[in-house]
Design a protein that fits this description.
Elements (H helix, E strand, L loop, with lengths): L5 H6 L16 E6 L4 E5 L5 E5 L7 E6 L5 H8 L10 E3 L5 H4 L11 E4 L6 E3 L2 E5 L1 H10 L13 E3 L5 E3 L5 E5 L6 E3 L2 E9 L5 E10 L5 E7 L7 H9 L6 E5 L14 H11 L3 E5 L9 H8 L6 E3 L10
Parallel strand pairs: 4-5, 5-8, 8-11, 15-16, 16-17, 17-18
Antiparallel strand pairs: 1-4, 2-3, 6-7, 9-10, 12-13, 13-14, 14-15
Length: 319
Protein backbone atom coordinates (compact mmCIF):
# COMPACT_ATOMS: atom_id res chain seq x y z
CA UNK A 1 0.00 0.00 0.00
CA UNK A 2 1.25 3.47 -0.82
CA UNK A 3 2.45 5.41 2.16
CA UNK A 4 0.29 8.37 1.16
CA UNK A 5 -2.91 6.27 1.07
CA UNK A 6 -3.68 6.78 4.76
CA UNK A 7 -7.42 6.91 4.17
CA UNK A 8 -7.49 3.39 2.67
CA UNK A 9 -6.15 1.88 5.88
CA UNK A 10 -8.53 3.94 8.02
CA UNK A 11 -11.55 2.89 5.94
CA UNK A 12 -11.35 -0.68 7.21
CA UNK A 13 -11.09 0.21 10.88
CA UNK A 14 -14.25 0.20 12.93
CA UNK A 15 -17.99 0.20 12.30
CA UNK A 16 -18.81 1.89 8.94
CA UNK A 17 -21.71 3.69 10.62
CA UNK A 18 -19.22 5.75 12.60
CA UNK A 19 -16.20 5.72 10.28
CA UNK A 20 -16.27 8.79 8.04
CA UNK A 21 -13.33 7.50 6.01
CA UNK A 22 -15.39 4.51 4.81
CA UNK A 23 -16.92 5.58 1.48
CA UNK A 24 -19.33 3.84 -0.85
CA UNK A 25 -20.28 4.99 -4.34
CA UNK A 26 -21.82 8.49 -4.37
CA UNK A 27 -25.60 8.41 -3.96
CA UNK A 28 -28.22 10.79 -2.64
CA UNK A 29 -31.45 9.75 -0.93
CA UNK A 30 -34.08 12.48 -0.95
CA UNK A 31 -36.98 12.25 1.49
CA UNK A 32 -39.63 14.75 0.51
CA UNK A 33 -43.17 15.48 1.54
CA UNK A 34 -45.85 16.09 -1.06
CA UNK A 35 -48.44 18.77 -0.32
CA UNK A 36 -50.87 17.95 2.47
CA UNK A 37 -53.67 19.10 0.18
CA UNK A 38 -52.93 17.18 -2.95
CA UNK A 39 -50.72 15.35 -5.38
CA UNK A 40 -48.18 17.14 -7.58
CA UNK A 41 -48.35 16.61 -11.33
CA UNK A 42 -46.27 18.18 -14.10
CA UNK A 43 -48.02 19.61 -17.12
CA UNK A 44 -46.56 20.16 -20.59
CA UNK A 45 -45.61 23.72 -19.65
CA UNK A 46 -43.25 22.43 -16.97
CA UNK A 47 -45.32 23.89 -14.14
CA UNK A 48 -46.14 21.76 -11.11
CA UNK A 49 -49.87 21.65 -10.41
CA UNK A 50 -51.58 20.31 -7.28
CA UNK A 51 -54.44 17.85 -7.70
CA UNK A 52 -56.75 16.71 -4.94
CA UNK A 53 -55.85 13.49 -3.15
CA UNK A 54 -57.75 11.28 -0.78
CA UNK A 55 -57.69 12.21 2.86
CA UNK A 56 -55.14 10.20 4.81
CA UNK A 57 -53.05 9.34 1.75
CA UNK A 58 -49.34 9.11 2.54
CA UNK A 59 -47.29 11.88 0.94
CA UNK A 60 -43.82 10.95 2.19
CA UNK A 61 -41.76 9.90 -0.82
CA UNK A 62 -38.21 8.66 -1.29
CA UNK A 63 -36.16 9.46 -4.40
CA UNK A 64 -32.62 8.13 -4.87
CA UNK A 65 -30.00 9.53 -7.24
CA UNK A 66 -27.76 6.67 -8.43
CA UNK A 67 -27.68 3.09 -7.20
CA UNK A 68 -24.09 1.94 -7.61
CA UNK A 69 -22.20 -1.19 -6.60
CA UNK A 70 -22.33 -0.33 -2.89
CA UNK A 71 -25.94 0.90 -2.88
CA UNK A 72 -27.55 -2.13 -1.25
CA UNK A 73 -25.03 -2.24 1.55
CA UNK A 74 -25.55 1.42 2.40
CA UNK A 75 -29.33 1.30 1.96
CA UNK A 76 -29.60 -1.57 4.43
CA UNK A 77 -27.34 0.33 6.80
CA UNK A 78 -29.05 3.73 6.71
CA UNK A 79 -32.68 3.40 5.58
CA UNK A 80 -33.97 1.72 8.78
CA UNK A 81 -32.65 4.60 10.90
CA UNK A 82 -35.03 6.90 9.01
CA UNK A 83 -37.97 4.51 9.09
CA UNK A 84 -37.68 3.76 5.37
CA UNK A 85 -38.44 0.40 3.78
CA UNK A 86 -39.23 1.25 0.14
CA UNK A 87 -37.97 3.50 -2.64
CA UNK A 88 -40.44 5.36 -4.85
CA UNK A 89 -38.19 6.60 -7.67
CA UNK A 90 -34.60 6.39 -8.89
CA UNK A 91 -32.75 9.01 -10.93
CA UNK A 92 -29.54 8.05 -12.75
CA UNK A 93 -26.64 10.35 -13.59
CA UNK A 94 -24.89 8.09 -16.12
CA UNK A 95 -24.27 4.49 -17.12
CA UNK A 96 -21.09 3.59 -15.22
CA UNK A 97 -21.33 0.83 -12.62
CA UNK A 98 -20.79 3.23 -9.72
CA UNK A 99 -24.21 4.66 -10.67
CA UNK A 100 -26.15 1.63 -11.95
CA UNK A 101 -24.54 -1.47 -10.39
CA UNK A 102 -27.32 -1.89 -7.82
CA UNK A 103 -30.30 -1.67 -10.19
CA UNK A 104 -31.41 -5.27 -9.78
CA UNK A 105 -31.02 -5.01 -6.01
CA UNK A 106 -33.89 -2.51 -6.02
CA UNK A 107 -36.18 -5.56 -5.88
CA UNK A 108 -35.59 -5.59 -2.14
CA UNK A 109 -36.82 -2.01 -1.77
CA UNK A 110 -40.07 -2.19 -3.74
CA UNK A 111 -43.42 -1.71 -2.05
CA UNK A 112 -45.49 -4.92 -2.10
CA UNK A 113 -49.22 -5.34 -2.61
CA UNK A 114 -51.52 -8.35 -2.82
CA UNK A 115 -50.20 -11.68 -4.07
CA UNK A 116 -50.31 -12.55 -7.75
CA UNK A 117 -52.94 -15.24 -8.34
CA UNK A 118 -50.71 -17.11 -10.82
CA UNK A 119 -47.30 -16.99 -9.15
CA UNK A 120 -48.40 -16.71 -5.53
CA UNK A 121 -45.77 -14.00 -5.03
CA UNK A 122 -46.50 -10.49 -3.72
CA UNK A 123 -47.01 -7.96 -6.51
CA UNK A 124 -44.25 -5.35 -6.69
CA UNK A 125 -45.03 -1.69 -7.22
CA UNK A 126 -42.79 -0.63 -10.14
CA UNK A 127 -40.07 1.88 -9.30
CA UNK A 128 -39.77 4.66 -11.85
CA UNK A 129 -36.20 5.08 -13.13
CA UNK A 130 -35.42 8.44 -14.76
CA UNK A 131 -32.42 8.53 -17.08
CA UNK A 132 -31.02 9.83 -20.36
CA UNK A 133 -31.54 8.09 -23.70
CA UNK A 134 -27.85 7.13 -23.77
CA UNK A 135 -28.02 5.63 -20.30
CA UNK A 136 -31.15 3.67 -21.22
CA UNK A 137 -29.42 2.16 -24.26
CA UNK A 138 -26.52 1.01 -22.08
CA UNK A 139 -28.87 -0.56 -19.52
CA UNK A 140 -30.65 -2.56 -22.21
CA UNK A 141 -27.32 -4.23 -22.92
CA UNK A 142 -25.99 -4.58 -19.36
CA UNK A 143 -29.30 -5.47 -17.67
CA UNK A 144 -31.17 -7.07 -20.57
CA UNK A 145 -33.17 -9.32 -18.23
CA UNK A 146 -34.89 -6.24 -16.78
CA UNK A 147 -36.35 -5.52 -20.25
CA UNK A 148 -38.72 -8.36 -21.22
CA UNK A 149 -38.78 -9.05 -24.97
CA UNK A 150 -41.89 -11.25 -24.91
CA UNK A 151 -45.26 -11.22 -23.23
CA UNK A 152 -43.61 -12.79 -20.20
CA UNK A 153 -43.04 -10.62 -17.19
CA UNK A 154 -39.55 -9.34 -16.46
CA UNK A 155 -37.74 -12.03 -14.53
CA UNK A 156 -39.59 -14.95 -16.14
CA UNK A 157 -38.16 -17.46 -18.57
CA UNK A 158 -39.40 -20.67 -20.20
CA UNK A 159 -37.78 -24.05 -19.56
CA UNK A 160 -37.36 -26.60 -22.41
CA UNK A 161 -40.60 -28.35 -21.41
CA UNK A 162 -42.52 -25.07 -21.66
CA UNK A 163 -42.77 -24.43 -17.93
CA UNK A 164 -42.50 -20.82 -16.84
CA UNK A 165 -39.65 -20.25 -14.42
CA UNK A 166 -39.90 -17.17 -12.24
CA UNK A 167 -36.83 -15.23 -11.14
CA UNK A 168 -37.21 -12.42 -8.64
CA UNK A 169 -35.83 -9.30 -10.32
CA UNK A 170 -36.55 -5.61 -10.04
CA UNK A 171 -39.75 -4.34 -11.59
CA UNK A 172 -38.81 -0.98 -13.09
CA UNK A 173 -40.54 1.67 -15.18
CA UNK A 174 -37.92 3.49 -17.29
CA UNK A 175 -38.57 7.14 -18.12
CA UNK A 176 -36.27 9.11 -20.44
CA UNK A 177 -35.47 12.70 -19.41
CA UNK A 178 -34.23 15.59 -21.55
CA UNK A 179 -31.58 18.18 -20.71
CA UNK A 180 -32.97 21.22 -18.87
CA UNK A 181 -36.54 19.87 -19.11
CA UNK A 182 -38.27 19.38 -15.73
CA UNK A 183 -39.79 16.03 -14.81
CA UNK A 184 -41.42 14.50 -11.75
CA UNK A 185 -39.77 11.72 -9.78
CA UNK A 186 -42.29 10.46 -7.22
CA UNK A 187 -43.77 13.97 -7.10
CA UNK A 188 -40.43 15.79 -6.81
CA UNK A 189 -39.77 18.29 -9.60
CA UNK A 190 -36.24 17.79 -10.93
CA UNK A 191 -34.25 19.31 -13.80
CA UNK A 192 -31.43 17.44 -15.61
CA UNK A 193 -28.17 19.40 -15.87
CA UNK A 194 -25.84 17.96 -18.55
CA UNK A 195 -22.12 18.03 -17.67
CA UNK A 196 -19.05 16.39 -19.16
CA UNK A 197 -17.82 13.23 -17.45
CA UNK A 198 -14.75 12.90 -19.64
CA UNK A 199 -14.94 14.35 -23.14
CA UNK A 200 -16.75 11.29 -24.51
CA UNK A 201 -19.61 11.06 -22.01
CA UNK A 202 -22.36 13.44 -20.93
CA UNK A 203 -23.59 12.77 -17.41
CA UNK A 204 -26.60 14.40 -15.80
CA UNK A 205 -26.49 16.46 -12.68
CA UNK A 206 -29.84 17.45 -11.18
CA UNK A 207 -31.46 20.51 -9.66
CA UNK A 208 -34.44 20.35 -7.30
CA UNK A 209 -36.02 22.25 -4.43
CA UNK A 210 -37.31 20.94 -1.11
CA UNK A 211 -39.79 22.50 1.27
CA UNK A 212 -38.33 23.65 4.56
CA UNK A 213 -39.67 25.47 7.59
CA UNK A 214 -41.66 28.71 7.27
CA UNK A 215 -42.50 27.88 3.64
CA UNK A 216 -38.87 28.38 2.60
CA UNK A 217 -37.33 26.33 -0.18
CA UNK A 218 -33.93 24.65 -0.07
CA UNK A 219 -32.52 24.69 -3.61
CA UNK A 220 -30.11 21.87 -4.40
CA UNK A 221 -27.71 21.32 -7.31
CA UNK A 222 -26.23 17.81 -7.48
CA UNK A 223 -23.16 17.20 -9.69
CA UNK A 224 -21.62 13.89 -8.66
CA UNK A 225 -19.68 13.11 -11.86
CA UNK A 226 -18.17 16.10 -13.63
CA UNK A 227 -14.89 16.85 -15.38
CA UNK A 228 -16.01 19.98 -17.24
CA UNK A 229 -18.94 22.35 -16.83
CA UNK A 230 -20.48 23.30 -20.21
CA UNK A 231 -21.10 27.03 -20.44
CA UNK A 232 -24.79 26.50 -21.29
CA UNK A 233 -25.27 24.44 -18.13
CA UNK A 234 -23.51 26.96 -15.91
CA UNK A 235 -25.54 29.79 -17.46
CA UNK A 236 -28.74 27.82 -16.85
CA UNK A 237 -27.86 27.33 -13.18
CA UNK A 238 -26.95 30.99 -12.75
CA UNK A 239 -29.78 32.53 -14.78
CA UNK A 240 -32.72 30.10 -14.79
CA UNK A 241 -32.55 28.49 -11.35
CA UNK A 242 -33.07 30.10 -7.95
CA UNK A 243 -29.90 30.77 -5.91
CA UNK A 244 -28.26 27.51 -4.88
CA UNK A 245 -28.49 26.67 -1.18
CA UNK A 246 -26.78 23.28 -1.30
CA UNK A 247 -24.24 22.18 -3.91
CA UNK A 248 -23.02 18.59 -4.10
CA UNK A 249 -19.99 18.18 -6.39
CA UNK A 250 -17.26 15.62 -6.88
CA UNK A 251 -13.59 16.16 -6.05
CA UNK A 252 -11.70 12.99 -6.91
CA UNK A 253 -8.21 14.25 -6.15
CA UNK A 254 -6.16 17.01 -4.59
CA UNK A 255 -5.01 20.15 -6.41
CA UNK A 256 -2.47 19.47 -9.12
CA UNK A 257 -3.77 15.97 -9.83
CA UNK A 258 -5.99 16.50 -12.86
CA UNK A 259 -8.23 13.65 -13.96
CA UNK A 260 -9.96 13.22 -17.32
CA UNK A 261 -13.37 12.26 -15.87
CA UNK A 262 -13.62 14.03 -12.51
CA UNK A 263 -13.00 17.39 -10.88
CA UNK A 264 -10.13 17.77 -8.48
CA UNK A 265 -10.41 19.88 -5.32
CA UNK A 266 -9.19 23.07 -7.00
CA UNK A 267 -11.76 22.76 -9.80
CA UNK A 268 -14.54 22.10 -7.30
CA UNK A 269 -13.61 25.18 -5.26
CA UNK A 270 -13.49 27.30 -8.42
CA UNK A 271 -17.02 26.17 -9.29
CA UNK A 272 -18.19 26.98 -5.77
CA UNK A 273 -16.84 30.51 -6.08
CA UNK A 274 -18.73 30.99 -9.35
CA UNK A 275 -22.06 29.48 -8.28
CA UNK A 276 -21.92 30.90 -4.73
CA UNK A 277 -24.01 28.26 -2.90
CA UNK A 278 -24.66 28.64 0.82
CA UNK A 279 -23.15 25.22 1.54
CA UNK A 280 -21.14 22.72 -0.49
CA UNK A 281 -20.54 19.01 0.09
CA UNK A 282 -17.77 17.14 -1.73
CA UNK A 283 -18.29 13.53 -2.83
CA UNK A 284 -16.40 10.87 -4.76
CA UNK A 285 -13.00 11.52 -3.18
CA UNK A 286 -10.22 9.00 -3.71
CA UNK A 287 -7.84 8.10 -0.92
CA UNK A 288 -4.70 9.24 -2.73
CA UNK A 289 -2.98 12.12 -0.88
CA UNK A 290 -6.12 13.24 0.92
CA UNK A 291 -5.93 13.55 4.68
CA UNK A 292 -8.48 11.70 6.83
CA UNK A 293 -12.02 13.10 6.74
CA UNK A 294 -11.95 15.29 9.86
CA UNK A 295 -8.46 16.61 9.09
CA UNK A 296 -9.52 17.59 5.56
CA UNK A 297 -12.57 19.42 6.85
CA UNK A 298 -10.40 21.40 9.26
CA UNK A 299 -8.24 22.47 6.32
CA UNK A 300 -11.28 23.36 4.21
CA UNK A 301 -12.52 25.71 6.93
CA UNK A 302 -9.60 28.00 6.08
CA UNK A 303 -11.12 28.69 2.64
CA UNK A 304 -13.36 31.67 1.92
CA UNK A 305 -16.31 29.39 1.07
CA UNK A 306 -18.48 26.99 3.09
CA UNK A 307 -17.28 23.62 1.81
CA UNK A 308 -16.79 20.24 3.46
CA UNK A 309 -16.30 16.54 2.80
CA UNK A 310 -19.53 14.56 2.85
CA UNK A 311 -19.63 11.08 4.40
CA UNK A 312 -21.81 8.00 4.15
CA UNK A 313 -24.96 8.52 6.22
CA UNK A 314 -24.71 12.32 6.25
CA UNK A 315 -28.13 13.92 6.88
CA UNK A 316 -28.66 17.41 5.43
CA UNK A 317 -31.76 19.09 6.84
CA UNK A 318 -33.76 21.61 4.83
CA UNK A 319 -33.75 25.04 6.36
Amino acid sequence: MKQNCIVSSLATRGDPRFNKDYRGNPSLMIIHQNSDTGREELSDDGIVHIKASQKGESHRKTVVIDVGKTFTENALRWMPSHGLTAIDAVVLSHEHMDAIGGLDDLRGFQALHTRNAQTGLPEQTPISVHLSETCLAALKSQFFYLFPKTSLFAGESVSPDGTRVHRHVSKLDFCVVQSFQPFLAAGLRMIPLPVMHGEDLIANGYAFSLDGSNNKKTNVVYLSDISRMPIETENFIMEKLPPTDVLVVDALSLDGLDHHTHYNLRQAVELVRRLKPRRTFLVGMSCDRFLPHDDMNRELKALDVDIEFAFDGLLVETR
